């Protein structure tokens, strides 16, 4: 039973990945020219740095807000918790385009917020919330929060709450219990959320393209341009390879600190 | 194996899995096998349908418009059906399709520069001009590997309330944020934006090509702080309708809709509009064969078909016979109407076919 | 052992209701300093709820709880200074044994040197010297239990609350730990308030036992008092085994080991009946005979095996007898 499964894995994962690796060293000509371009093309480096910066900030805030939401959820009664979970899950069903354009309507030049603030006289000129990096971050963080919530929720639900009581009983204040016991015990959830959100963020391009007003260019969009419009498949493959190994490297570093199986809820 | 059978066995597997009778690995294997086989069967279906032309276009209303004005008369006269792939025939996708050897589209509603670039790289069938009529195309817009059926164009719109009695009327005005303050929007993938920048910088219409890329980029950067960039027609549309920009580049065929949506507050400027020849191109080894697809293209050359597309999509005819037949209400927006045909600047697909990679990446680098 | 200067706990008329159910019903109890007191009862008897109210995790619906005469109802759990050993131990899984034990001192920001010496003292008390740097998951169940105990005693609380602390251990280990727990209690002199549903645990360790039933106290007394003089059918049945005899409108308890048994005709006793052995169950030191009397009632009788080897078999007719002081008259 396992053999056909392996064949499927080979066909659907390993072959395309090998193909990408191969393309990155043979297109347009054999050699490491595509990789050398990383060192002498300032724009490539800038795109990579922009991507990392945006992903790091997105991940930080998504996990922060996700943690707050998950924490609130596990401390609600079961009925409210189910309602909240339904709300979180429903957001997976709303297309990313709809959400992105909703932000434009809310925060845009003539959006609800700017118009409202102007109407009550707080501001004279609309504030540029979107069509810039701030807009990209708002859109991405909003999209990523549910992804951050779920691993944390699983982690928090499985905590033995007697341990928190023990901490309280032993004389710890609420803050002390949170910082010394709750937070450390949710680290696996935090790590899982962080990895998940960061990896998903790396592949984002609809939101940055629209909310960034065309000025925030991330790797994923750049790769798609190189494949679809400029036909520089070698560059695209090189960047894809870079992302792949970046992610693998990240997982490796994480695995040095903790068991990944614990992070992703595998066997204990 | 047939699809229904697989579907059912997966469903049964799911029941067994839930009940704990089947282990997780076996269930996943079954799902994976079923998935592979179903997609294989689906692909086989697509191949099997031989007696039809697949038109690869950009979806939206174009499926309806192409269907009504080209596909219906074509099917009527030849008996060959027409199907649609609405995923958008980007150069990279066409190239990948031909390279993979499983070509599923017969004709692509593409750009002229795609005809040049992909023709040079050997990914296209040549146009058979014994069937397709060169006389039904404006001079210079029929190439070896593609023929222009419609023009569209890059023009800009401005906010009449912002500029009052002294409205902008050229790309020079568009790029002049001192005299015409306010935000601008430009097309993100360089096309049209570079030409506009050079015209604004004083390059004459006739001396535009080959484009002086450095000079164009430098000019684009002068208004970078005031610019937004759009990647799709709807985005360009909403940037203007939402009042995000005082002057916005658009695809000219959106002009009328935007004027209507803003109750005439924004007005289209057709002076120096950049006319883009679209091109029908045929991927090499198209499934329906050469004769059928050439007849299809021939149908699209008919003035009736082209005027239909103008009405339906705002795409401007390339058949000179149709120029005089453009209805009154469309004249102000059409590239090849008598009132605009001398004001527009024609894009050079040969330059773009050879240089788009350099141009797009240089532009992206400049704006990001 | 000298008596500590604190640790008197008064529970005055305490009631706890959850919605329409009453978990603890007007309970009055005086726990004396230094005492090992066990709350014994089946699940749902209110013993754990009472403990949680004392710990401060549940609010009393009415009544008062006082330590050394001062009410603690308004003192939050973290300020009550009661040590507690939880069911399942509730050790901090990410901290070493040492850090677990020092936790109550850490959060009280005691000086480092004091913390270190106190932790060593505690490790010695629970015989875990050398285990300080391990993580809880690297310890056996019994060792974890001792860490939980050390942690709860580390800050010298006036009262130690123990919530079924041995529930997760196997029987042999449980008996061993019972002895250790009792020894530690005698050494530290702290008031131990112990909750369990296991009567053997209660009998072997407690100075006094409180039998609880349906939120009320059924009977309080030393193990010996409760065993020898149960006041109710419930008390007699829950603590140890008992036969119940109906005699002139009253019920009497008769412990199985207090019945003498001999082959028919051999027995000389105050009260004596004959019956037929239905079943014999073997327990190593004793065997349990189920004897059906002539009136159809069954009595359970414990027989010392060694002294009666090969004396009895199923189907045999035997004489049963007991003295007057072997039976206890029960209430109600």
UniProtKB/TrEMBL annotation, chain C:
Domain ABC transporter, by residue range, is: 9-239
Position of the signal peptide: none
Query: Known SMART domains for this protein?
Result: AAA
Q: Does the keyword ATP-binding apply?
A: yes
- Please provide the record's keywords in A-Z order: ATP-binding, Nucleotide-binding, Transport
- Specify the domain of life of the species encoding this protein: Bacteria
GO BP terms, alphabetized = putrescine transport
GO cellular component terms listed in the entry, alphabetical order? ATP-binding cassette (ABC) transporter complex
Record bears the keyword Nucleotide-binding: yes
For this chain, one GO molecular function annotation is:
ATP hydrolysis activity
Q: Name one Pfam family in it.
A: TOBE_2
Task: Fetch the PANTHER family from UniProt.
Answer: SPERMIDINE/PUTRESCINE IMPORT ATP-BINDING PROTEIN POTA, SPERMIDINE_PUTRESCINE IMPORT ATP-BINDING PROTEIN POTA
Q: From the Swiss-Prot or TrEMBL record, give the protein name.
A: ABC transporter ATP-binding protein
Q: Which organism is it from?
A: Hwanghaeella grinnelliae
